[in-house]
């Protein structure tokens, strides 16, 4: 039985949060990405400020809604400028804000030291801030990789809800939304339905398609009442059932069993008289010219006693 106190706490955290950060583990699969982007977009549509981050590149279909908004950092307060340089070559760093409204950063090298290479300059943000953090598919914050390394202080002190489609406990937060379900897409859908969060048709379609994909069109996995309730919720939210792909049977031309012979023009037959010359009667042997006995043409009658009439 689900802890009702935990559900009440989670609902309160979600309802009161004005800003949310959704964090994926490095190298997430399609299911995790669809679930996380769905949460991120649903929070934005509800009027909250939402960010979504992942500590690595995301290699999934770029057409999935919200994928382009996944950043490699969750910080947004501090601008960080980095470049390759040795501290021993540095004389001083200074800045100036001029009347044109622009900020100028001065990096002065020591005499004889190389000038910093502008081609190695990179820009990023740090200093994350949010009322609520949601993690998906991790058992420890260290699994977040670069994001945890960059924002350890913030994450160690922030309220976090852990999402997982297994019942394995975690130690980094007491706010867990863990259910033994087929996919994270199903988990997030159950979350939307349980806490009365509305989702648009595009989000619903992504989630429904991934639920069908993760269960091989509802033929494998742990199919429960939650599964079918989630499908019904998504269809009420505007999703359409995935279209079955018809299997095309290849057609091969059937060769004939017997190949007809090629028609060629047959030369006309020679006249019979010319083809086989008959011998003259006087030249035949005596036995061939003797008259036929008369009894040869009569019918023969065979009797039981062996006599013939």
What's the helix and strand layout?
Blueprint: H1 4-16, E1 19-24, H2 30-45, E2 49-54, E3 70-71, E4 78-82, E5 90-97, E6 103-109, E7 122-126, E8 132-136, H3 146-150, H4 152-157, E9 160-164, E10 175-178, H5 184-194, H6 201-214, H7 225-236, H8 272-275, H9 286-289
Parallel strand pairs: 1-2, 1-8, 2-3, 8-9, 9-10
Antiparallel strand pairs: 4-7, 5-6
What does this structure look like?
By secondary structure, the chain is an alpha/beta fold. Among the domains are: 4-77 and 124-197, inorganic pyrophosphatase (n-terminal core) (Alpha-Beta Complex), CATH 3.90.1640.10; 84-120, no CATH class. It is 28% helix and 17% strand. The protein contains 9 helices and 10 strands. Strands 3-2-1-8-9-10 form a 6-stranded parallel β-sheet, with helices on one face. Strands 4-7 form a two-stranded antiparallel ribbon. Strands 5-6 form a two-stranded antiparallel sheet. Helix 5 (184-194) crosses helix 7 and helix 6 packs antiparallel against helix 7 (225-236). The longest helix is centred in the N-terminal third of the chain and has 16 residues, at 30-45. It is elongated, with a radius of gyration of 45 Å.
